[in-house]
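Cross-posted from the bioinformatics board.
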Amino acid sequence: GQSLEQPSEVTAVEGAIVQINCTYQTSGFYGLSWYQQHDGGAPTFLSYNALDGLEETGRFSSFLSRSDSYGYLLLQELQMKDSASYFCAVRVRYGGATNKLIFGTGTLLAVQP
Amino acid sequence: DTEVTQTPKHLVMGMTNKKSLKCEQHMGHRAMYWYKQKAKKPPELMFVYSYEKLSINESVPSRFSPECPNSSLLNLHLHALQPEDSALYLCASGAGQGDTQYFGPGTRLTVL
Protein backbone atom coordinates (compact mmCIF):
# COMPACT_ATOMS: atom_id res chain seq x y z
CA GLY A 1 0.00 0.00 0.00
CA GLN A 2 0.88 3.67 0.00
CA SER A 3 1.63 5.47 3.26
CA LEU A 4 3.08 8.76 4.44
CA GLU A 5 4.03 9.39 8.05
CA GLN A 6 4.48 12.72 9.84
CA PRO A 7 4.67 13.67 13.52
CA SER A 8 1.19 14.52 14.75
CA GLU A 9 2.15 17.67 16.66
CA VAL A 10 5.11 20.01 16.98
CA THR A 11 5.44 22.97 19.34
CA ALA A 12 7.98 25.79 18.99
CA VAL A 13 8.45 29.40 20.07
CA GLU A 14 8.40 32.53 17.97
CA GLY A 15 11.66 33.20 16.19
CA ALA A 16 12.79 29.58 16.40
CA ILE A 17 13.43 27.04 13.63
CA VAL A 18 11.33 23.90 13.30
CA GLN A 19 11.64 20.86 11.05
CA ILE A 20 8.66 18.68 10.08
CA ASN A 21 9.61 15.27 8.76
CA CYS A 22 7.80 13.08 6.28
CA THR A 23 8.61 9.46 5.44
CA TYR A 24 6.78 7.69 2.68
CA GLN A 25 6.24 4.28 1.16
CA THR A 26 4.76 4.59 -2.29
CA SER A 27 5.09 3.18 -5.77
CA GLY A 28 5.38 5.29 -8.88
CA PHE A 29 6.84 8.28 -7.01
CA TYR A 30 7.19 11.56 -8.90
CA GLY A 31 7.77 14.14 -6.18
CA LEU A 32 6.97 15.52 -2.73
CA SER A 33 4.84 18.59 -2.04
CA TRP A 34 4.08 20.50 1.15
CA TYR A 35 0.80 22.24 1.98
CA GLN A 36 -0.19 24.51 4.86
CA GLN A 37 -3.74 24.55 6.21
CA HIS A 38 -4.98 26.98 8.84
CA ASP A 39 -7.89 25.90 10.99
CA GLY A 40 -11.08 26.26 8.94
CA GLY A 41 -9.15 27.17 5.80
CA ALA A 42 -8.07 25.52 2.57
CA PRO A 43 -4.72 23.82 1.97
CA THR A 44 -2.19 26.25 0.47
CA PHE A 45 0.73 25.06 -1.63
CA LEU A 46 4.15 25.75 -0.11
CA SER A 47 6.77 23.80 -2.08
CA TYR A 48 7.53 20.89 -4.37
CA ASN A 49 10.64 18.69 -4.67
CA ALA A 50 11.02 16.35 -7.62
CA LEU A 51 14.77 15.84 -7.20
CA ASP A 52 17.03 15.27 -4.21
CA GLY A 53 18.17 18.35 -2.37
CA LEU A 54 16.98 21.52 -0.76
CA GLU A 55 14.50 24.04 -2.19
CA GLU A 56 14.29 27.42 -0.49
CA THR A 57 11.37 29.84 -0.61
CA GLY A 58 11.75 32.71 1.82
CA ARG A 59 11.47 31.45 5.40
CA PHE A 60 10.47 27.98 4.24
CA SER A 61 12.76 25.29 2.83
CA SER A 62 11.96 21.76 1.75
CA PHE A 63 14.29 18.80 1.38
CA LEU A 64 13.97 15.47 -0.38
CA SER A 65 16.01 12.28 -0.32
CA ARG A 66 14.51 9.81 -2.79
CA SER A 67 16.88 7.02 -1.75
CA ASP A 68 15.70 7.32 1.86
CA SER A 69 12.03 7.96 0.97
CA TYR A 70 12.25 10.96 3.25
CA GLY A 71 11.66 14.66 3.16
CA TYR A 72 11.25 17.57 5.51
CA LEU A 73 9.90 21.08 5.69
CA LEU A 74 12.04 23.62 7.53
CA LEU A 75 10.41 26.77 8.87
CA GLN A 76 12.71 29.55 10.05
CA GLU A 77 12.05 32.70 12.08
CA LEU A 78 8.75 31.27 13.22
CA GLN A 79 5.82 33.64 13.53
CA MET A 80 2.51 33.18 15.31
CA LYS A 81 0.75 33.06 11.95
CA ASP A 82 2.69 29.89 11.10
CA SER A 83 0.50 27.98 13.56
CA ALA A 84 -1.34 25.61 11.25
CA SER A 85 -1.43 22.03 10.00
CA TYR A 86 1.26 21.02 7.53
CA PHE A 87 0.77 18.15 5.11
CA CYS A 88 3.33 16.42 2.95
CA ALA A 89 1.86 15.00 -0.24
CA VAL A 90 3.39 12.55 -2.65
CA ARG A 91 2.70 12.72 -6.36
CA VAL A 92 2.36 9.14 -7.58
CA ARG A 93 1.49 7.30 -10.75
CA TYR A 94 -2.16 6.18 -10.77
CA GLY A 95 -2.18 4.38 -14.09
CA GLY A 96 -1.00 5.15 -17.60
CA ALA A 97 -0.35 8.87 -17.85
CA THR A 98 -2.53 9.59 -14.85
CA ASN A 99 -1.11 10.63 -11.51
CA LYS A 100 -2.46 11.94 -8.22
CA LEU A 101 -1.54 13.34 -4.81
CA ILE A 102 -1.60 11.27 -1.65
CA PHE A 103 -1.54 13.35 1.53
CA GLY A 104 0.36 12.54 4.69
CA THR A 105 -1.24 12.34 8.10
CA GLY A 106 -0.54 16.00 8.84
CA THR A 107 1.46 17.82 11.53
CA LEU A 108 -0.17 20.40 13.76
CA LEU A 109 2.36 23.16 14.47
CA ALA A 110 1.74 25.36 17.49
CA VAL A 111 3.89 28.49 17.73
CA GLN A 112 4.06 29.97 21.20
CA PRO A 113 5.05 33.50 22.18
CA ASP B 1 -7.26 35.54 -11.42
CA THR B 2 -5.45 32.98 -9.24
CA GLU B 3 -8.42 31.81 -7.26
CA VAL B 4 -10.59 28.75 -6.97
CA THR B 5 -14.06 29.61 -5.72
CA GLN B 6 -16.61 27.28 -4.17
CA THR B 7 -20.27 27.69 -3.33
CA PRO B 8 -21.96 27.40 -0.98
CA LYS B 9 -19.64 27.97 1.94
CA HIS B 10 -21.87 25.98 4.28
CA LEU B 11 -24.61 23.47 3.53
CA VAL B 12 -26.96 21.61 5.81
CA MET B 13 -29.08 18.91 4.23
CA GLY B 14 -31.30 16.03 5.20
CA MET B 15 -30.71 12.47 4.08
CA THR B 16 -33.46 12.68 1.46
CA ASN B 17 -32.36 15.98 -0.07
CA LYS B 18 -30.62 16.59 -3.38
CA LYS B 19 -28.08 19.38 -3.49
CA SER B 20 -25.07 20.43 -5.55
CA LEU B 21 -21.68 21.88 -4.73
CA LYS B 22 -20.08 24.20 -7.26
CA CYS B 23 -16.46 25.02 -8.03
CA GLU B 24 -15.02 27.52 -10.50
CA GLN B 25 -11.53 28.47 -11.62
CA HIS B 26 -10.33 30.93 -14.25
CA MET B 27 -6.65 30.03 -14.30
CA GLY B 28 -6.93 27.99 -17.48
CA HIS B 29 -6.20 24.82 -15.53
CA ARG B 30 -7.06 21.56 -17.26
CA ALA B 31 -7.25 19.32 -14.19
CA MET B 32 -9.87 19.67 -11.46
CA TYR B 33 -10.32 17.65 -8.29
CA TRP B 34 -12.81 16.91 -5.53
CA TYR B 35 -11.52 16.02 -2.07
CA LYS B 36 -13.28 15.15 1.17
CA GLN B 37 -11.69 16.16 4.47
CA LYS B 38 -12.78 15.12 7.94
CA ALA B 39 -11.68 17.08 11.00
CA LYS B 40 -7.99 16.65 11.86
CA LYS B 41 -7.48 14.33 8.87
CA PRO B 42 -5.77 14.84 5.50
CA PRO B 43 -7.77 15.52 2.34
CA GLU B 44 -8.95 12.33 0.62
CA LEU B 45 -9.18 12.30 -3.15
CA MET B 46 -12.63 11.56 -4.56
CA PHE B 47 -12.58 12.44 -8.26
CA VAL B 48 -10.21 13.86 -10.87
CA TYR B 49 -11.19 15.46 -14.16
CA SER B 50 -8.60 16.00 -16.84
CA TYR B 51 -9.59 17.98 -19.93
CA GLU B 52 -13.22 17.75 -18.79
CA LYS B 53 -13.14 13.95 -18.70
CA LEU B 54 -13.36 11.89 -15.53
CA SER B 55 -9.99 10.21 -15.12
CA ILE B 56 -10.05 9.04 -11.50
CA ASN B 57 -12.94 7.86 -9.34
CA GLU B 58 -11.61 6.64 -6.02
CA SER B 59 -14.42 4.13 -5.48
CA VAL B 60 -16.72 6.87 -4.24
CA PRO B 61 -20.34 5.84 -3.46
CA SER B 62 -22.83 6.65 -6.19
CA ARG B 63 -24.67 9.09 -3.93
CA PHE B 64 -21.85 11.47 -4.97
CA SER B 65 -22.01 12.34 -8.68
CA PRO B 66 -19.42 14.66 -10.26
CA GLU B 67 -19.94 16.75 -13.35
CA CYS B 68 -17.61 18.95 -15.37
CA PRO B 69 -19.77 21.15 -17.65
CA ASN B 70 -16.75 23.01 -19.05
CA SER B 71 -13.08 23.62 -18.38
CA SER B 72 -13.78 26.22 -15.67
CA LEU B 73 -16.58 24.54 -13.74
CA LEU B 74 -16.86 21.47 -11.58
CA ASN B 75 -19.98 20.30 -9.77
CA LEU B 76 -20.61 17.64 -7.18
CA HIS B 77 -24.20 16.43 -7.02
CA LEU B 78 -25.33 14.99 -3.72
CA HIS B 79 -28.28 12.68 -3.15
CA ALA B 80 -29.39 10.47 -0.27
CA LEU B 81 -26.31 11.25 1.81
CA GLN B 82 -25.58 9.75 5.21
CA PRO B 83 -24.58 11.61 8.40
CA GLU B 84 -21.06 10.18 8.05
CA ASP B 85 -20.73 12.15 4.80
CA SER B 86 -20.58 15.35 6.84
CA ALA B 87 -17.17 16.89 6.08
CA LEU B 88 -15.34 19.72 4.35
CA TYR B 89 -15.49 19.24 0.58
CA LEU B 90 -12.58 20.81 -1.22
CA CYS B 91 -12.19 21.56 -4.90
CA ALA B 92 -8.76 22.03 -6.44
CA SER B 93 -7.33 22.74 -9.86
CA GLY B 94 -3.97 22.30 -11.50
CA ALA B 95 -2.35 23.16 -14.81
CA GLY B 96 -2.14 19.50 -15.63
CA GLN B 97 -2.90 16.31 -13.82
CA GLY B 98 -0.31 15.80 -11.14
CA ASP B 99 0.85 19.41 -11.25
CA THR B 100 0.66 21.70 -8.22
CA GLN B 101 -2.92 21.91 -7.00
CA TYR B 102 -4.63 25.09 -5.87
CA PHE B 103 -7.49 24.63 -3.46
CA GLY B 104 -10.74 26.48 -3.02
CA PRO B 105 -12.00 27.45 0.45
CA GLY B 106 -14.27 24.41 0.64
CA THR B 107 -17.91 23.71 1.43
CA ARG B 108 -18.63 22.58 4.96
CA LEU B 109 -21.40 20.00 4.62
CA THR B 110 -23.57 18.77 7.45
CA VAL B 111 -25.96 15.88 6.83
CA LEU B 112 -28.73 15.52 9.38
